[in-house]
Design a protein that fits this description.
- It contains five helices and four strands.
- With 141 residues, the protein is an alpha+beta fold.
- It folds into two domains: 41 residues; 69 residues, no CATH class.
- A four-stranded mixed sheet has the order 1-2-3-4.
- A hairpin with a 2-residue loop joins strand 1 and strand 2.
- 11% of the residues are buried.
Length: 141
């Protein structure tokens, strides 16, 4: 320990310097917090959450349905592009994008589900909109 000329400074230094037991206790708490954070991030990764908090669509996840229409989770940018609906003769790639999630949505619409509706859900807000309304149902115009 360092020697001080003034005994008051020596007492103050002793009070401000953590002891070995305090330092080891703090290290223990920090290590526990880190392990808990790692466990939670592992659980979220299993569910499909990314670091930004948005849900990524994987093939292993069971598809969700609402009002007998398939529901797709999209990010906020894609949701806002699609909020006014698709214009006539426009391609869906301009609305849902060319990434894996957009490809899944386009593939669903072009497959045998041609008459069924598609609902998009915003990951951040949970708002829902129809990308395509189902034919011959109470949702059609």
């Amino acid at each position: 320990m360092t020697k001080f000329i003034n005994p008051l400074l020596e007492e103050l230094f002793a009070l401000l310097t953590p002891t070995e037991s305090q330092a080891s206790r703090e290290d223990k708490y920090v290590s526990e917090i880190i392990t808990l954070a790692n466990k939670e991030s592992a659980k979220l990764a299993e569910i499909g959450y990314s670091q930004t908090g948005e849900v990524e669509l994987y093939e292993e996840i069971q598809p969700e349905y609402f009002a007998s229409c398939r529901v797709f989770a999209v990010n906020s940018d894609t949701f806002h592009k699609c909020r006014l609906g698709k214009r006539r003769y426009a391609r869906y790639a301009g609305y849902v994008g060319n990434d894996s999630n957009g490809a899944t949505i386009r593939e669903y619409g072009r497959s045998r589900h041609g008459q069924k509706g598609i609902i998009l859900v915003d990951n951040s807000t949970g708002a829902m909109i129809f990308l395509r309304r189902p034919h011959n149902s109470r949702f059609s115009k």
